[in-house]
Design brief:
alpha+beta, ten-stranded antiparallel beta sheet, two-stranded antiparallel sheet, 12 strands, 19% helix, disordered N terminus
Amino acid sequence: MRPALWPIVAVALLTIVGTAYWRLAAARSHASPTVRTHIEISGEKFDLDNRYLGARREDGGIELAAFFPNFAPAGDIGDITAHTDIDDRFGHLVFVGLKPADPKLDPAERTARLYLRFLDETSWSHPGGLVARAFEPGSPFEGDELFFVPPEGRLFSARCHRSDPSRNLPNTCIAVFRAGAVDAQVRFSADLLSDWEAVMKGAHGLIEAARR
């Protein structure tokens, strides 16, 4: 494994979430591909390949990083040789944050209970069978757009931040789903929205494969 990959992944995290908090652990840059970490979140035990691991979250969770479409670990540069352009690599990164499940809000109800009242009435269709609506000006999510499976996004919904060239921030989407006792927050490029089913399937598979 090439140690130079970790700074690249760290830059991707900074670019996508717009903060210095998320980075991959540099200490793992020389780890063997077979090294694994055992963690427990809300009583759920996971056995994770260290090449997926990023920073621990303040809420007791963990951040994972993988490459779409095969969800190979982001810590192995050999898995992305087909993507020679760095920006293209960033566009294929998918981040999966695991944290204790929110007892107050099931992710499947997020659109109906949290977002619906803030959405503009105008909607438009999007590839992948999604419906898109912008958030109203003055709302807590002003400037964002919601893409969801009708009627209420129970199957899938993603809140997407519009790109901001002035801050070098790309158009990034966040989707959340529940997996047992944990909530998974999936962050990915808006360019992958049309492949949302494959993105979510990969995230689900990554989690289930890590369960002990």
